[in-house]
Every structure is written in structure tokens, then in C-alpha cells.
Amino acid sequence: MIRGIKGVKDITPDQIPKWTITERTAHALSHAFGFHEIRIPVFEKTELYVRSLGDATDLVEKEMYTFSDRDGTSLTLRPEGTAGVVRAFIERGLKAQPSSRKLYYIGPMFRHERPQAGRFRQFHQFGVESVGNAHPDADIEVITLLWRYFSALHLPGLVLEINSLGESSDRQEYIRTFVSFLKGKEPRLCGNCQRRIHTNPLRILDCKVPLCRETVKGAPSITEFLSQPCQQHFDHVLRGLRLLGIPYTINPCLVRGLDYYALTTFEVSCSVLGAQNAIGAGGRYDGLFQTLGGPPTPAVGFAIGLERVILALPESALPQPDPWVFIASFGEKGREAGLSLLDSLRAEHVKADTDYHASTLKTLLRSADRLGATYVVILGDDEVAGNRITLRNMVTKEQVTYPLSTASAAIVNQLR
Ligand code: HAM
């Protein structure tokens, strides 16, 4: 037997109700906030991700699924959505379409990470990108959508951490100070971080290795290096969150793993998840359009890991399943009438089903019970001869009789 790939999950029918509610809520809230859906390809030229995410990031160094096309072009399965959205925005001239300034997407992403609970090699993100607005109100809007999404799904134990990385010049100055703080402390850093001093020093700040956490304690904080406009931007965002009652914690070590961020960065963790507790994250990336050859364009967005949302989703967030009808038809005439009734209910988009293997009322009722039907229509030859059907409510056991000729309309009425 050929098995599936490690870290790549099937989503089986029993899990679909949870996926449906997380995706429906994403569509509904995105629309409520004025975002429009975009669908971008699942693979792009490798260069797009190398340039966007940064060649010294873990994602680019170790986690991309990269392969050669037949003509030798290097292609990569998308590890995230932001780079593709920005590429599409520039290439398709979406700036000219006012409805394309606020975009959202839902779909699979691919990262070659070590699989564990909540960490997969194919996973799904719901992401939003708000393009063209440098005002901190755009940051507030995006963070509010993120928070309201989690609230709508009743996710427990959420913590929103927020930071500002300032502009490039603030960051360069901070990095110089931080690197000199680390001078002589190299042996007290993990191997990865010893390398990061030369490639990506900011990442040392959010390394999870206890030794590194200990070593960076007492390091100067990036927030002390913000220029006045950056500080004002950050203060405005925080004020907006307070105004909207969104609780946050400032974490000066939150630098995020991708190079395109500047100014606001944020991450939401969920305490009911294990080690992989980051459930959604994002920030501002005003420089990315230029990096990818576009005009200077400010932008801010987030992405949420849907597998992690589903792991944290309480049963109470699941809606009641729609009521549906099982047609228990038997006998020659009964089965014919049952087939027609099944078809007319389905044409009205009412869920209706039967069991073609069962042929007696007893086995049909057993089948209806096993499948969890809300209602059962009893329809045998006698019912056809008497122009009637019996509709049984499987929960209350109440029964009503309707004329067979108008049964479909009566059942639709009953169910709506
Ligand atoms: P990210 O932090 O790399 O950001 O990913 C966002 C979320 O995707 C994470 O918080 C996590 O919930 C989920 N995630 C990441 N890797 C995995 C995995 N291997 N298995 C399961 N879930 C995972 C981004 O992707 C940015 N593009 C976010 C963004 C949008 N920034 C601005 N706009």
C-alpha cells in the first residue's frame, strides 16, 4: 500500500464541519471588513520567495519545496501567501481596481518543517493583505479582523503580542547596538544563533532555545530605537486597539521570521495548543513592493494557520447540522414515488437521502437512525394507493400525514 506523505494530512468527512465553519467565518468576516477574495497560484518562481522572505531566513534556507521545471526554471510550492499576492498585485495592475486594495485568501501552503502536533508540511492559511494605506488605522483594521475572527470562533486562551520594528534605518542602528551587546556572549548562544549574528541577528531575539533566551535578557530593546514618526505610528495602533477593547501585550522580542516586515508586527498565540501555539501572525511590509520591482506601496496583513484554529476550536463553535430527510420507500410503487420525492426535495436544496440496499420498513428505519436523519418519510405501496405520506420526526417521534401529491412542498415548509 502506498501511504501518504509525512506531515501531509487528509481532511476526512468527519472533520469537514470544523473546516466549513472556519472557512465560512473567514469569508463572512473578510466581507464585513470590506476585503475581496483573491486566488493565487500554489507555485511560483523560487526567486519570488527568496527575494521576498529573505535568503537568510529559516524558511528560505531549509523549508521550501523547490524543484526544477522541465526547462530548468526553479519553482517553489508557496510557503506563504503574501509574496504571491504582491506579485499578482504588481503584475495585474490591481492598483487601478479600487476593490483590489483589500485582499484575502484561503488555501494550502507548503513548508518542509519537522512534523509535530500543529505543524504540518502542507497546511492551510487564511490571510489578508491591505494594500496602499500607510496610515496606522490600516494596521488597526487588520488586527481587529484577526481578533474578531478568533472571537467569532470562540477560541480560548488567546494572547496578542505586538511590537514595532521601526523603519530600516532604526533597525540598522538597533542591529549594530544589539550585535555589540552580544560580543563575547557567542558561546552562550545556540549554533544557529552564532551563525545568525552574521546573517540575521534580529532572529536571535525570538530564538526559543532556553540558553539564547537567557543570553538576550538585558539586551537593549528595539522599541528604544524607534524614530519619532515610527513611535507615533506604534502609539496610534496601540491606542486604536485599546479603544476597540482588544487586549495586547508589547513584546520587544517579537521580530518574526520573514525579512519583509517593518513597523508593526504581531502574533497571536493560543494556550490550548502545545509547543506550536502561534495561531496567526502578521505585520506591516511597506518595502516589499519595491523589493519585487513595483512602485513604493505600503501594506499590512496577517495569516492564520487553519489547522491550529481547528485544533483549538471548541465544540460549541460548531453549528447544529442542517435537518434532513430520509426517504423510507418500499414496495414497487412506493420506491418509484420515493425516487420522485427524493428528486424534488433535492431540487429545492433540501438534503434528502435513502438507502438503496434496504427494502423493508424495518431495515430502512434502522438505516435512517444510523445515519442520524432528522425526519423520515414513510412511503410504501399502501401510501401511494391512499395518496399520502407519513413524516416522522426522529427526535420527538411525532408523525404527520401529508397528501403525496403536495408532500414535497409540505416537507420543504416543515424544514425551513
Ligand atoms: P507566518 O508566521 O509564517 O506568517 O505564518 C502564519 C501562521 O501560519 C502561523 O502563525 C501558523 O499559525 C501557521 N503556520 C505556519 N507554519 C505552519 C506549519 N508548518 N503548520 C501549520 N501551521 C503553520 C506568514 O505566513 C505571513 N505571510 C503572514 C503575513 C501576511 N504577513 C503579512 N501578511
Q: DSSP strand (E) fraction?
A: 15-25%
**What is the CATH C-level name of the largest domain?**
Alpha Beta
Question: Within the largest sheet, what's the order of strands?
Answer: 1-5-6-11-10-9-7-8
Mean pLDDT: 96
CATH topology of the largest domain: BirA Bifunctional Protein, domain 2
Provide the gyration radius in Å: 28 Å
- Cofactors and ligands: histidyl-adenosine monophosphate
Descriptive report:
This protein has two domains: 16-166 and 226-317, Bira Bifunctional Protein, Domain 2 (BirA Bifunctional Protein, domain 2, 2-Layer Sandwich), CATH 3.30.930.10; 325-415, Rossmann fold, CATH 3.40.50.800. Helices cover 38% and strands 21% of the residues. It is built from 15 helices and 16 strands. The protein has an eight-stranded mixed β-sheet with strand order 1-5-6-11-10-9-7-8. Strands 13-12-14-15-16 form a five-stranded mixed β-sheet, with helices on both faces. The chain has a three-stranded antiparallel β-sheet with strand order 2-4-3. Helix 1 packs antiparallel against helix 5 and helix 5 (136-152) packs parallel to helix 9 (228-243). The model has no long low-confidence stretch (mean pLDDT 96). The site of histidyl-adenosine monophosphate has 25 residues, from strand 6, strand 10, strand 11 and helix 11.
